[in-house]
Amino acid sequence: QVQLVESGGGTVQAGDSLRLSCAASGGTFSRYHMGWFRQAPGKEREFVATASWSGGNTDYADSVKGRFTISRDNAKNTVYLQMNSVKAEDTAVYYCAATDRYSDYATPRRRLQYDYWGQGTQVTVSS
Fold first, then answer.
1. What is the pLDDT of residues 44-92, one digit of tens each?
2. d(Cα 98, Cα 30) in Å, to the nearest integer?
């Protein structure tokens, strides 16, 4: 079983950059797909990005494509979300998630496809 701890959230201005980190412990990190989701007040938790075991396959929500980049360092058991050109609508609690149910070719995008979750980190973008 893997434990996930997010960090790096904060308050930034529109147009700024921010990097979130998610440190994993337990399990074999290199065999987990890692995903980022977010939940804004009053809204459902939504998919943001996912990276396969090797990091070679990634996928993004249309709303962040071209602005956010997911990456992972399997030697450090850490996955990152680089957020550039942030917008007010990016304000949310960001959650890291993990699953070991899929092959390295898959790019799971649904909440139910992930088994392990972090506690979340708040990102607030002021306009």
1. 999 999 999 988 899 999 999 999 999 999 999 999 999 999 999 999 9
2. 11
